[in-house]
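Need a sequence for this fold. Nothing fancy.
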């Protein structure tokens, strides 16, 4: 088996017969990882289930169940009379049936969670609410199983004093996730679990900044960040974002002594621009030269539809000047109130001492559940599945705008995220502001956010921020028709 690259990779499979997970679950997780890491090349043939079973000293039933599962997830392909092959393209779409997931395979054994109907979507949720993910396809059953397994007989460590940085297995799971998805080589000890971005900014401020320090923020940007900076007795300095994103040189013309910059380099919020490498390097160079910090808000990075994402900025700097802030609000949902910060190792003592003044706010109830959700693979499955779905929904909304509202709105495809910005055409701008457009839309039952509301100062451009993730293609098209009718009146 070891003569080929595939054979060599398969030799690395190692099953722990005394482990907490079943042999089937271990084999599933390891094979999936080998495929994802391309240790088994796309398109290559797997040995027969009989050979694999013999090599691994497990039953053929176990191997066949795992292979069936990976076929249903789109990692493997069974070809009649030929054998089983690794898919040429890694799966972005996973089966709609919840019964097809890894978790439910284990669940099938215990049988404790009956299939349930999808939850009702809140009636108040209307296109194009940008904060809405697809709520009906969240793997609630798997989540409930992880919750039950965690809290039915809680681990003693959970009931004693937990590290103030957060539940260690969750920090491990996040470190693994960041290595795989964001090319960020960090360790669990660098990760602090937050209740969201506001707590992240407070802790960073307490650990690294002094009252009255200027902090560069993006203009347009997420207003909450300016407020959070202000609440920590720092001075936010909104600085223009151009076609390429945030420009440190322009920003320093207004605030040459700034001590930090909060940026969204992987996908600017809300414009969606990816900050090019040259600008990233300039930012880091500034931070290193001025003892300042880049706070990398990587809020909107997971759902990338095209191309490979640039790795996180933090991975570019070995000078300990980039602090990474992440959130589960989009990938799971905002009500979860869990996020995290990755601190450079050299900052950890300062952070621990700042924590003694501020205290961690994230509830411990959900942290172990999320850790299991991530470690089991359910989280990655969910992201891939939603990514494919959201790509289709974006295509649907673009098509609908071109068909029904081309005289009103100008849109381009976005390579990532859950929303797009439709710019007002000159004709629409002459007739009304984006704020008025949003008000009219609201009376027609459609939610859009005026781009101008993302500016702290006078808005530079006019447009509508439109979320597409949480709505079916039909609802999106109908929403565009209603919007267009409201804007034409
Ligand atoms: C730019 C940006 N960063 C971060 C967040 C996430 O914040 P939180 O983790 O507090 O939900 C958001 C939410 O909309 C955002 O727009």
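Here you go.
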């Amino acid at each position: 088996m070891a003569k080929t690259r595939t054979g060599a990779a398969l030799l690395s499979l190692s099953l722990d017969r005394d482990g907490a997970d079943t042999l089937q679950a271990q084999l599933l997780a390891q094979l999936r990882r080998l495929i994802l890491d391309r240790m088994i090349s796309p398109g290559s043939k797997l040995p027969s289930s009989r050979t694999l079973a013999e090599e691994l000293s497990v039953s053929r039933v176990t191997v066949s169940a795992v292979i069936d599962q990976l076929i249903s997830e789109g990692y493997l392909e069974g070809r009649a009379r030929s054998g089983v092959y690794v898919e040429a393209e890694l799966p972005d779409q996973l089966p709609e049936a919840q019964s097809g997931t890894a978790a439910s395979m284990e669940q099938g054994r215990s049988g404790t969670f009956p299939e349930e109907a999808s939850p009702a979507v809140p009636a108040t949720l209307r296109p194009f609410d940008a904060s809405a993910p697809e709520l009906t396809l969240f793997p609630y059953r798997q989540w409930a199983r992880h919750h039950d397994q965690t809290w039915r007989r809680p681990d003693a460590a959970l009931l004693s004093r937990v590290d103030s940085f957060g539940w260690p297995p969750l920090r491990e799971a996040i470190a693994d996730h960041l290595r795989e998805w964001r090319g960020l080589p960090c360790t669990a000890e660098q990760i602090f679990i937050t209740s969201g971005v506001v707590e992240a900014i407070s802790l960073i401020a307490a650990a690294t900044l002094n009252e009255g320090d200027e902090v560069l923020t993006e203009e347009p940007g997420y207003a909450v960040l300016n407020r959070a900076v202000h609440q920590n007795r720092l001075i936010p300095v909104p600085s223009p974002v151009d076609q390429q994103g945030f420009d440190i040189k322009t920003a320093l013309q207004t605030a040459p002594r700034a001590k930090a910059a909060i940026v969204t380099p992987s996908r600017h919020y809300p414009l969606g621009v990816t900050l090019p490498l040259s600008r990233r390097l300039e930012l880091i160079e500034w931070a290193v030269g001025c003892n300042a910090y880049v706070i990398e808000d990587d809020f909107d990075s997971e759902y990338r539809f095209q191309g490979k994402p640039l790795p996180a900025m933090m991975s570019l700097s070995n000078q300990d000047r980039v602090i990474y802030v992440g959130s589960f609000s989009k990938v799971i949902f905002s009500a979860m109130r869990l996020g995290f910060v990755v601190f450079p190792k050299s900052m950890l003592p300062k952070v621990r001492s700042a924590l003694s003044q501020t205290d961690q706010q994230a509830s411990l109830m959900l942290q172990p559940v999320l850790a299991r959700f991530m470690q089991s693979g359910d989280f990655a499955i969910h992201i891939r599945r939603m990514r494919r779905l959201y790509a289709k929904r974006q295509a649907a909304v673009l098509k609908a705008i071109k068909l029904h509202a081309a005289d009103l709105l100008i849109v381009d495809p976005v390579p990532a995220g859950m929303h797009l910005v439709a710019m007002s055409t000159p004709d629409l701008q002459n007739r009304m502001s984006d704020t008025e457009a949003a008000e009219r839309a609201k009376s027609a039952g459609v939610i859009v956010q005026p781009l101008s509301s993302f500016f702290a100062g006078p808005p530079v451009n006019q447009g509508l921020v439109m979320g597409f993730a949480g709505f079916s293609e039909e609802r999106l098209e109908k929403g565009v028709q209603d919007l267009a009718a409201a804007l034409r009146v």
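For context: The domain at 381-488 is CATH 3.90.1150.10 (Aspartate Aminotransferase, domain 1).
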